[in-house]
């Protein structure tokens, strides 16, 4: 009797899972895998979106840092730094051609200004006085921006060489058409009737849209940066 009972127990212990148990196990495993895969997918989407946003921010910040750094060098070296006898042109007068314009080794500072383009002179990299132009354009042809997003172009040429500088793209995806603003020495907003020599500070505001939409929402990321630079505008040197 004991032998038969032992064999029965051994026989029962060798039984596998039933079909129902297997189906339940597979269902639970599938649910777990689905949750894990969905979580990994969401993490990947967030990571991609974060990378795009960080890249857009860094690109915009690099432009802002460069333009502000260059603006702070505008007007240097000014006329006050030279012995008049060493200048290549000494016949200039305040009422005529400005002395800085008559001498290629002297920087005039800001030479043109609008809300979408500025041109200034300065020794921005230690290689001599350069003429720098930064302007908002529709494309690489330099046509005025009429439909956003637009691009910001930058061109540099040595003052001693002159002429139209070669342009390259500084920033893409710009969605505001008024980039630059200016204030005068008395703190008031710049007006064209006062002349460029009255500009003390130049501000820059950029709204930039990424070229890839958010993978989750389909919305394009946007970055806004605002800053300003004080100029050595050479108003006392001209």
What structural class do you assign from the helix and strand content? alpha+beta
Overall strand count: 8
Number of helices in the DSSP assignment: 3
| Element order: H for helix, E for strand | HHHEEEEEEEE
The first-to-last residue Cα distance is: 122 Å
Mean pLDDT: 85
In angstroms, what is the radius of gyration? 33 Å
Show the helix and strand layout.
Blueprint: H1 2-13, H2 19-73, H3 99-102, E1 110-113, E2 117-122, E3 130-137, E4 150-158, E5 167-174, E6 180-184, E7 199-209, E8 222-230
Characterization of the model:
- The chain is α+β, with helices and mostly antiparallel strands.
- The chain has one domain.
- Helix content is 30%, strand content 25%.
- It contains 3 helices and 8 strands, in the order H-H-H-E-E-E-E-E-E-E-E.
- The chain has a 5-stranded antiparallel beta sheet with strand order 1-2-3-4-5, with helices on one face. The protein has a 3-stranded antiparallel beta sheet with strand order 6-7-8, with helices on one face.
- Strand 2 and strand 3 form a beta hairpin.
- The N and C termini lie far apart (122 Å).
